[in-house]
Design brief:
This protein is an alpha+beta fold and about 120 residues long. It has 3 helices and 5 strands, in the order E-E-H-H-E-E-H-E.
Length: about 120
């Protein structure tokens, strides 16, 4: 599952709760998170000399009330402004919608990846 923002900027995410399989059970929630984060990705915040960057991977957790916590860059793109732009997009997406009522866990693990191209 990928989304496209602007011309070529792409990213995606996978969600897995403590029991796993969250994305299969609640695909609509995953899509809503993708839309929210992608709408907050601002290409203008990336150093203008950077034309493309290797994939950045950021992990975070969504609490039951939709609050995003524990944002960590687990794989840097090698470009600080690209990593910071992805982290800012996640931070400004909090709070998300509360976790689905049918989900029994108290949080969900999220792995977000981001491929930057101008």
């Amino acid at each position: 599952s990928t989304f496209t923002m602007g011309q070529n900027t792409q990213g995606g995410l996978s969600l897995g709760g403590p029991s796993g399989g969250f994305g299969n059970m609640f695909p609509w929630y995953v899509q809503a998170v993708q839309r929210r984060v992608s709408s907050n990705l601002l290409q203008a915040t990336v150093d203008p000399t950077v034309q493309w960057a290797p994939r950045a991977v950021i992990d975070f957790e969504i609490l039951r009330d939709g609050t995003i916590v524990n944002i960590q860059v687990t794989k840097s793109s090698g470009f600080p402004s690209v990593d910071a732009s992805a982290v800012r997009a996640i931070q400004s997406s909090s709070p998300l919608n509360p976790l689905p009522g049918g989900y029994g866990g108290s949080y969900v693990n999220v792995e977000f990846w981001f491929d930057f191209k101008r």
